[in-house]
Amino acid sequence: MANVCPIPTDSYKLGFIGAGKMAESIARGVVKSGILPASRIRTAHSGSARRTAFESIGVTVLDNNSQVVEDSDVIIFSVKPQVVKNVVSELKPILSEKKLLVSVAAGIKLKDLQEWAGQGRFIRVMPNTPSAVGEAATVITLGEKATTEDGELISQLFGAIGKVWKADEKLFDAVTGLSGSGPAYVFLAIEALADGGVAAGLPRELALGLASQTVLGAASMVSGMSKHPGQHKDDVASPGGTTIAGIHELEKSGFRGILMNAVVAAAKRSKELSQN
């Protein structure tokens, strides 16, 4: 590990390979939080819409990926999983271990990333779509030559768009099934709650507002308090009341089992895709 140099936390430059929505969310969060000024962030894109999106933050938009790598200390690969191999392989000649590499591509394992890059100073990161509003659930795992300091730096970066956990890579398929796919399950639940409100006589706009705020509030209580979610449920479910009547209907329909099965099915699919 002699070639691995600590990244200067007060002066490093951050580069994005890929200028999509996820990269934009991370860049916006990093700048907004004050972790890095926009002047130390760069990416490359030929499309005017994406260039404008990054330039509006103050990010430098270069002409090609090679320029981004050469002018960055930390490089985040934020491209679609099916093109990661080609992108990393093309840049391999300039991916020295002086640079910390990060991948947010779902289902792409560290051993493959390290092989394509020709170096092991890689960190795999799995954020999710609420990164767009600064509420991501992100999990990171370190490659064979990434240091503890590297992990702390990346945790700080992704902490700008939500909460961060560290986990062994063998758990990443399960992470995909839960936090990666989970927002879609919650969107369905919000839509169903709103539909229930409409069926009970509420105007659509009011029903959707109440449903989304109710989910947000309930999640905040679980996240911000030490109580188990089951305790919160018990607090609301008065004997013979409205809430326990609703819970009874959910249990008759296998509500909890359905959600558990959804997570397991998505995790299984993630495992299948990562083996292709």
TrEMBL record:
Transmembrane segments: none annotated. NADP(+) binds at I17, G18, A19, G20, K21, M22. Its main location: cytoplasm. NADPH binds at N65. Residues 169-273 form the Pyrroline-5-carboxylate reductase dimerisation domain. GO terms for molecular function: pyrroline-5-carboxylate reductase activity. Pfam families: F420_oxidored, P5CR_dimer. Coiled coil: none annotated. The gene is LOC101261090. This is Pyrroline-5-carboxylate reductase. Pathway: Amino-acid biosynthesis; L-proline biosynthesis; L-proline from L-glutamate 5-semialdehyde: step 1/1.
